[in-house]
Amino acid sequence: FYFDFMLAVSRFSLDFGLTIPEIAEDGLGVIKGRNLFLVDEELKGEEQVVPVSYSVGKTDLGIFGATPHPVATLTGANSGGKTCLLIMLASSIILTELGLPVPAERAEMPLQPLYVYRRKMIKKTGSFEYSMRALSRIFMREGAKVVLIDELEALTEPGAMGRIMASVLNNLPKDTLAVMITHLIHELLPHISMRKVRVDGIESEGLDAAGNIIVDRQPMFNHIGSSTPELVITKLLGRVRKEELKKVYEEILKVLEKEREEWS
């Protein structure tokens, strides 16, 4: 049985390009990490996976620009790979705790309880009250932990949600490592502790000839990534024929441009 297990792990590692992670206490991160589920699709002939390097807390990975903040917010382009990065971190932690290799060239992973909050899960199970009760579990259990949060902002109005999520991040228990994906960074910024929370961003580079959004999936550290809804509207604008709808899209683009100028 042991031989069969080791053979399976070795074959799994070989097929998916996995590596044994180093155990860390004060941080987590990957060099050229890949989402395991996207790798599985790639092996079946789908689109090639773009590896990314990312870390929070104190690591020895030497990722340029990744300051050792224990908490990070991840902002940026729609369909830029933010959720895929979060799933990659979560699956890598789980694989490490199972004693298995992870999908990265090099990785440092903690052996700590993992809390994952995703918008789809919250929507299926309940309301704003339920999500707040779920988040409270982070504070009820003592000791170090890893918290990964994916876009909970749709649960209530943006201004209030920005303050609520800022309070959650500012008051995370000691030794907690966290990454939170959000589109409400401008609502969060006035209220978060910049000594504790790092702001990272995934940037888009415009549209290609086919009208698809070009995205650099490697996050930029200490940088606010723009969500670029105007690129999506521009893409739609190029495909519509009705003048009435064109006017609507053009008006939306003007509003978004004005809003971005105010943020700047």
SSE pattern:
HEEHEEHEEHHEHEHEEHH
- Put simply, the count of helices is 9
Largest sheet: 6 strands, mixed
Overall pLDDT score: 87
Beta-sheet strand percentage? 15-25%
Unreliable runs: none
Total number of β-strand segments?
Answer: 10
* Arrangement of strands in the largest sheet: 6-7-8-4-9-10
- Category by helix and strand content: alpha/beta
The general outline is globular
Gap from first CA to last CA:
61 Å
Helix content: 40-55%
Radius of gyration: 20 Å
Written overview of the protein:
This protein has nine helices and ten strands. It is of the alpha/beta class and 264 residues long. The strands form two sheets. A six-stranded mixed beta sheet has the order 6-7-8-4-9-10, with helices on both faces. Strands 1-5-2-3 form a four-stranded mixed beta sheet, with helices on one face. Helix 8 runs antiparallel to helix 9 (243-263).
Question: Topology of this protein?
Answer:
Elements: H1 2-16, E1 22-24, E2 27-33, H2 36-43, E3 52-57, E4 71-76, H3 82-97, E5 106-110, E6 114-118, H4 119-125, H5 128-140, E7 145-150, H6 158-170, E8 176-181, H7 185-188, E9 197-207, E10 213-220, H8 229-237, H9 243-263
Parallel strand pairs: 1-5, 4-8, 4-9, 6-7, 7-8
Antiparallel strand pairs: 2-3, 2-5, 9-10
